[in-house]
Each structure stands twice: as structure tokens, then as C-alpha cells.
Amino acid sequence: MKLAYWMYAGPAHIGTLRIASSFKNVHAIMHAPLGDDYFNVMRSMLERERDFTPVTTSVVDRHVLAQGSQEKVVDNIVRKDHEETPDLIVLTPTCTSSILQEDLQNFVERASLDAQCDVLLADVNHYRVNELQAADRTLQQIVQFYIEKAQKKGELPTEKTDNPSVNIIGMTTLGFHNNHDRTELVKLMGDLGIDVNLVLPDKASVDQIKQLPRAWFNLVPYREVGPATATYLQETFDQPTVDITPMGIVETARCIRVIQKVLNAQGATVDYEAFIDEQTRFVSNAAWFSRSIDCQNLTGKKAVVFGDSTHAAAMTKILTREMGIHVVLAGTYCKYDEAWFREQVGEYCDEILISEDHGAIADKIATIEPAAIFGTQMERHVGKRLDIPCGVIAAPIHIQNFPVGYRPFLGYEGSNQLVDLIYNSFTLGMEDHLLEIFGGHDTKEVITKTVSANGDLNWTTDALTELKRVPGFVRGKVKRNTEKFARDHGHSNIDVEVMYAAKEAVGA
Amino acid sequence: MTLAKPQTQNLEFDCDTGNYHTFCPISCVAWLYQKIEDSFFLVIGTKTCGYFLQNAMGVMIFAEPRYAMAELEEGDISAQLSDYAELKRLCEQIKRDRNPSVIVFIGTCTTEIIKMDLEGLAPSLEAEIGIPIVVARANGLDYAFTQGEDTVLAAMVQRCPTSADLDSPAEKEERNSIQKLLNFGRQKAEETPAITTEMKDHPNLVIFGSVPDPIVTQMTLELKKQGIQVGGWLPAKRYTELPVLDEGDYVVGINPFLSRTATGLMRRRKCKLIGAPFPIGPDGTRAWVEKICSVFGIEPQGLADREAKIWASLEEYLAIVRGKSVYFMGDNLLEISLARFLVRCGMTVPEIGIPYMDKRYQAAELALLEKTCHEMAAPLPKIIEKPDNYTQIHRIQQLQPDLVITGMAHANPLEARGINTKWSVEFTFAQIHGFANARDILELVTRPLRRNNSLRDLGWDKLIQEEVNV
To answer: Which of A227, B264, B305, B408 is the Cys-Cys partner for B154 at CB 3.0 to 4.6 Å?
Structure first.
């Protein structure tokens, strides 16, 4: 047992449901007790979805516990097939149903006989994988099922498209800014003269899956969802994968150059260098921003980054490489993908933290006292408590992270958005401490927001006034260092002299 | 007139497939940990339970709540780890970090399936760590949403002291008597000036059901006006202040979902249950107070005037709802009481969905619903226990009600189809009891109607491209 208050990644079935409900006309039936259909609330509320979420429950109650599901699951599948005529029903086990050890595969086989639609059992282990791993696995499972089905029927097209074309794999419902990223990537492909063969799974129909092999290559923008499918397609059809997240100016260029290589290897003759140069220098504003004096002021400012692998790694690179910001700590909660993360950010930050414990990252933030945090909603709240601004860059997220306006994180427009996000986080912090340096809008008595370790030391009025002049974001540290110095040197009163002695001694 | 018909019409009950959306009953920790200030709730379950709580409680999760998950791992499921040792380790950690007066174990679906004997483990664990452990099985296999509170309170029934317990010094020590005395003293000092009516002589009365503190004060005062002294509330603000319960004491429920607690009070503590409608809406509040008075042989004073005044003050809201229809999809068991109030407000109710219908515990409420319908010449609603959301949405499409009270899973899709909705969950968290809060209920009920009135002429009430495929 583990004492837990908060988790970054959800349980496995959430990942399966995210995949199923991303497709058009695919229905998921959860084998779960009453109340486990919380996914429907999240989708309806967070995404402000207009349609009913295609997820229902085959309820596990006392009777099921006593006698087994018997006909119930099969009846529910057949009923849903009749009511909604979906193309596919995904039977989704939950943590509860997986310990009942019912033969769900058998239900699926029986239901397939009566149902018009296809029926699949999501193949995920609830005690071993989380939401993200399950999503990756389920997408691969569905793709493989329909590829093999088409193969059997001899309907699998083998010819590549005439024009260079791409499958964009991994865009899902409830994914962080996925809908905007989708638009941005489709636009980018258009600019590069590449046809989009299929976007998967977002709004795709399962009938389209058999068209996947026609694309010249697969683009997998996110590390969490899609790689399993791309690997399968690579192994089965020798279809190349481009798995560089085009987030930030440098990585977007790198992604485009790899695409160029992949296409030219298949006989195209494309040269994207002029496009990259034009976009970088004149169309997108991110490169110019990094050269401007605004960004100069950010040089060496300390930041902490935490999130899923994709966003935390990309953000770390942008901050360090494109803006000259000092990333003290970069971290991810994707423990299962630790090696990849370390390799990605190793040279761009001082320290790496791989943890699912929100307390561990909160403690780190409190110790480092960065000028800004880039993290999840949890880090935003940590920042609130410590008075440090936070830009949200990854799930878990709230409704305000599903903006109505166009806010991609990927591609050239994405880098513009990131500039705003980063710059606004830092200026807010600057403004905040400028206000405090000049005594704030009102002359309030509160002199410091950090809690002092203990009250055995007496600050003189002069020293307190002096402390007030220290910029807000380092004040706590100055206070602590001064107190430590005073204690070490046996001063019980802290006056201005002691303060400056401390500053000289420890550089506080 | 309506004299000829009433006796021929009766409420119609039906039971459907139980394929409906509701919150998991473990959600009760969200309001109970706030209510019982010295408690700690430990939900023994999986990531699924944790994920639900984390999302359902929203910002509360960041406020260092006094609840946590004991997240079961593969080793716990396959019994490679000892439940007892694991729970002991976690309880010691909780004791060290939070020092609560009680730890409430919330059993979940998983603990049911793997048959973890929480009730059996608790007493020895309790003895070993020195903190009371209350076990409630608030799981989705058996219960819906608010019934979670019922399971917790039913478990607490056994922990209420008798007056004999309080005389024994050992018990006093255990219940932290000094603090209790201090609190008693403070409460008495606060209460004394408020008492204007002479107290009648009546048996001890304990009210059960968790409501916010302002409601506790309001309802206590409401009864005081009739000369009735409330002997205690289950639950109280602190676990160490659970009310004294003796054989023969009277108990009355404040919420419609507390049938197990009521049963526990009657069977295990030999208390007498006052079966009354619930004090939701001015009509319900009056009926509740009247019923308590009648049991104690007290003539109620000034209630009719009080009710009339409240109704008069609600006129601006009543003008909006009068003649409109409201459909309850059903998910929190407050449905019967709310429907009864809204019928009295002049609305019609074609259907009341409800997760579970205890006809005995809700008897007085059902009778009042029936009476209200007759008096308002409104058709009797059909009551559907364990509804089926899919068929309900069909019926909603046909009936086109003016308002649907529903869970969040269906609210946005219905709005997109031009149907006004109100999230049912808000009724659980808003203050809805007593005379003074009738306004709050109507504020909630009329909000979608008022909002959509102001958007009415814009011409975009249906916002989907094709009609729903049902």
C-alpha cells in the first residue's frame, strides 16, 4: 500500500477511453462498478464536448460479484450495437474488473457473433501501466486489428500516395492542447507540400485505418501516445517514423530536416532549408524575441520544469537553448520512460528529477526558489503557495487549459505561444518584486512571505526595512542565510551591520 | 373541484436497468472531512478511486485535505503483503503527521472483491495505535453518491456514547473530557443569550445528517422557537463531540439518503425515529418542524405565518418557474424532496429518477409529494428507481422539459441540443435546508432559465450539426 494524495497520470482505463472516444463512431463499454464512468464528466466538462461521450458502463454490482457477469456484458455490447450502430466497441476492463478475473475475452467473442460491429477487449494491465502507457497500447491494438482485418480481406492498399504524405499519430481527446497542435501540424505539412494521409486517432474512423500504409512516413509528435503504433507500422510496412517533437524553433527545424531526409530517401527531391530560414527569421517571432533586449533580461534567471516527458523535455531545451534561461531542475512523472528523458535533457539542466510524488517536486521548488516554474496544475498551486509564477505546460490540467482560442504548443505558431507563456510568467514575477522594492501599492506591514525557521532571532526595524528592499523572489533566501549567519556567529539581534556581514560572508 | 379524483391516483414506481451516471460514494469524504474537523479519511482503493476524488474535488485537493488514498498495489491484491501490517504502517504515518481524533477507513470495490476484512482489522489496529478507527464500506458495488455519507454515519452510530459511558472515568478520559468540557462551556455561554422561548419538557432529540454549520445553527434555532432543545447532531463538528444516545431517545433525519443510519439508530441503539418530510423548501421545513412537535405533543407556534412570509419573499423566482416542467435524471437521492418543493412552486414533474428508493424511510416525504401534487392539481410524477440514462435521454427528447436536473456527464450535450440543464451535484454542496435557504434552491433552479432567457433572441439555442442519433 502507498499513501497517496495526488497522481500525475490516471489509471489505465482512462488511457483506453481517451483513445476509443477520440475515434469517430467507436463506443467503449467499461466493465466497472457504478461511479467509475467519471471519464464522461471530464470529457464533457473539460473539453466542453457537445456530444454525449460514447462510453457506457456494464455495471459490476453485488450480483456480478456473487454470480459473475454471465450474460450481462454480452447483452450490453449487443444492446449498444443495436442502439448506436458503432463501427467498433472496445470492452474496457477497470481495476475492479481485472481482479474479478472474468473471462472478458470470451464475452467479446460471444458478443462478436451477435453484434454487427467489431468488438475488441482492451489489452492493458491495470496494476502495471498508467493512463499514458495504456493509451499508447490501445491505439496500437486497434490499428493492428484493422490492418490485419484488411489484410485478411485483401483490402490493404500497398501503393504509396503519389505525393509525399504523412500520418500524424497520437492526437487524442483530453490531450494537452492536442486539438490546436493538430491544426498547426496539418498547416505545417501543407506548407511543406506534404499531404496529410490520416490523423490518428482524433476524429478518424476505423475504416480509414487500412489507408495508413499509403503514407510515406509517420509523424509522432508526442512521446506518450503513438510510438507503439509507429513502431508497429515500421516493423510491418517498413514505414519510417519521425518522432521529434516540433516544439520550439530549434526542434521544429530539426523535425523538418529529418522529414526532408526521410522523403528524399524515398525518391522525393525536397529542400526545406529556405522554408526553415524564412519561418525562423521572419514569420515566427520566437527567434527575434530571443535576440531582443526583453529576453536579454531573462538571461540566467532560474527556472524549474516538470511535466510529461514530451513537454518537460521540449520546454527545458527551449528555455536553455533558445532563451538563455538557467534550468536548475527538469523533471518528469513518466518514470517508465526515464532513460529517454535523461538523454534528452541531460545537457540542458543542472539536475534531473524522475518522480510521481508531488511532494518531492514541491520540496525541490521550495529549496531552489526559481523565478518561474513550468509545470502542471499541481506545480501551479505550489507556485501560488510560494509566490512564484507558473506557466502550465502539461497534464494534469484544469478547464482553463482547454482554451477556446487558438493555442498550439507545436510548430512555428506554437513557438510564438511559448514565448508569450514564458515571458508573461517572468514579467509577472519581475513586476511583483519591483512593486515590493518600492514598497508596493500600499504600505503594508507584511515584510516577508516565507516562514522563518524559528523566532529566536530579533530583527531590528532598520534591518527589516533593509530586508524589505531585497527583491521578493530572493528575499526568503536572504532572510534565511542572514539568520543562519547570525546564529553561527552568536548574534541574537540582527541589524543592518549583521545583514551586510552575512551578505559578504555567504553572498546572501 | 379535485375532490373526486385524488384517491384513484397514486404515485407510480418503476425500476430500470441501473445504467446511469452518478458519483462514486467515496465522494462523501469531500464534505465529511470538512464537517468532522478532527477526522482523517483513508480511502483504501486503487488509482481509479484516487483519480475520481482528485478530479471531483477540484481545488480542494490543493488545500492539504485530511484525506488520502491507501493505494493498493499488486502485492496487496495477491495477498503477498499483509493487510494488517500495511494499514498499520500507514496509520502510524497519519498519526505522526496529522494526529487526528479518528481515522475513517473507506472500503471500496476492491477491498470488497478481495474481501479485505476491514471491520475485523480495525479493533486490533485501533488498540495498537490508540486512535479510534471507524469502518465504512462506501463502494460503487452497493451504493450511489450521497449514500456514502449514510454508510459513514451508520458506522458512527455505534461510536456515540450513552449517558452511562460519560459517567465512567475511563470513557471520559478516552473522549478527551477536558476539551469537551471546555467546548461545552463555550457553547453554553454562546447559547444562553439566544434562548428567548421557554424550553418544553420533552425526551432527548438527536438530529442525524451532515449539513454545514450555519444550517446546524439555523435548524437548532428553528426548533428552539418551538421550545424544543436539540440534544445533539450526528455528526458533530468534532468526532470527540459525538452526541449522547440512550435507549428511547428520539432521532430525526435531515436528509433523504440516510436510511441505513436511521435503521442503525433504531435497531442497534433502540432510538425512536420520527418519520418526517425533509426540511428542504419552506413547505418541507414546516412539515418537518410540525412532525417533531406533534411527536412531542407540542402545539407549533407561528409556523404558518413564517412559511407564508418565505413564499411571499420568493415571488420573483416563482414567477419564472410557474407552469414550467422539470425532469430529474436522478443521481443523489435528494430528488423526491426537491420535486415536492418544485411542485409546490408551481412546476410540473413528469419523471423523477432516483438511484435508490427507501419507501419506509421516505414515507412521509412521499406522502407529502402526493398531497402537494393533488393540492397544486399537478400530475403525479413517475418515480424511476435505478434509471437508465439512455432511455431517459429518449424521453427527454420527446417531452422537451423546460429544465433537466442532471449530472455533469449529460449537461453540456443536452444544452447543445437546446435543453436547459442544472447540474444536480450543486444541490448536494449548496445550503438547501430550512426556511432561509429556499431562496438558494430557487436561485439554482432558475439560473439556467434566467441565463437562457437573456440569450433567447440570439438564435443559437441548438448547437449541434445533426440531431442526436437516438
So the answer is: B264
Query: Taking CA B420 as the corner, what is the angle to CA B418 and CA B425, rounded to the nearest 5 degrees?
Result: 135
| Amino acid at the residue B227 | G
Strand order in the sheet with B133-137: A2-4, B67-71, B39-45, B102-107, B133-137
Name the CA dihedral angle for A137, A394, A29, A153, rounded to a multiple of 10 degrees: -40
Contacts A57 to B, Cβ<8 Å: 19
Sheet with B272-274: list strands edge to edge. B232-234, B205-208, B250-253, B272-274
3-state SS track over A349-370: CCEEEECCCHHHHHHHHHHHCC
Q: How far apart are the CA of B423 and the nearest CA of chain A, in angstroms?
A: 11
Query: Which triple of cell numbers denotes residue A54?
Result: 460514447
pLDDT at B6: 43
Stated pTM of the model = 0.88
Please give the Cα distance from A462 to A493 (Å, whole number). 11
pLDDT digits (tens, 9 = 90+) for A44-99: 988 999 999 999 999 999 888 888 887 899 999 999 999 999 999 999 999 988 88
Residue identified by cell 475475452 is A105
Query: Which grid cell sits at A345?
Result: 535533457
Supply the mean pLDDT for chain A.
91
Q: Do A56 and B408 touch (CB under 8 A)?
A: no
Q: Does the distance separating the beta carbons of B409 and A40 come in below 8 Å?
A: yes
Residue given cell 551591520 in the structure block: A497
DSSP helix/strand/coil, B71: strand
pLDDT at A317: 97
- Could you read off the pLDDT of A183-230 as tens digits, one per residue? 999 999 999 999 999 999 999 999 999 999 999 999 999 999 999 999
Please indicate whether residue A489 or residue B191 has the higher confidence score (pLDDT): A489
Angle subtended at Cα A420 by Cα A419 and Cα A424, rounded to the nearest 5 degrees: 120
Helix pair A377-386, A358-368: axis angle to 10 deg: 40
Greater model confidence, B111 or A433: B111
The verdict on whether A191 is a catalytic residue reads no
**Which has more confidence, A7 or B345?**
B345
Cα(A11)–Cα(A399) distance, rounded to whole angstroms?
A: 20
Is the pLDDT at A448 greater than 60? The verdict is: no
CB B69 within 8 A of CB B41: no
Burial of B172: CB neighbours in 10 Å, binned 0-12, 13-18, 19+:
middle
What cell numbers appear for A268 in the block?
522525393
Contact B410 A6 (CB under 8 A): no
**Cα separation, B202 vs B227, whole angstroms:** 9
* Start-to-end CA span in chain A (Å): 43
Contact of A342 with A411, CB cutoff 8 Å: no
Structural contact between residues B300 and B293, judged by C-beta atoms closer than 8 angstroms: yes
pLDDT of residue A10: 93
Tell me the nearest-neighbour CA distance from B161 into chain A, angstroms: 31
pLDDT for residue A437: 67
Nearest Cα residue to B353 out of B399, B427, B407:
B407
Catalytic option among A294, A363, A456, A462: A294
- With bands split at pLDDT 50, 70 and 90, how would you rate the model's confidence at A478? confident
Residues of A in Cβ contact (< 8 Å) with B112 = 65
Query: What is the dihedral angle through the alpha carbons of B275, B280, B284, B288, rounded to the nearest 10 degrees?
Result: 40
Query: What would the mean pLDDT of A297-309 be, rounded to a whole number?
Result: 93
Residues of chain B with pLDDT under 50: 1-8, 172-195, 468-470
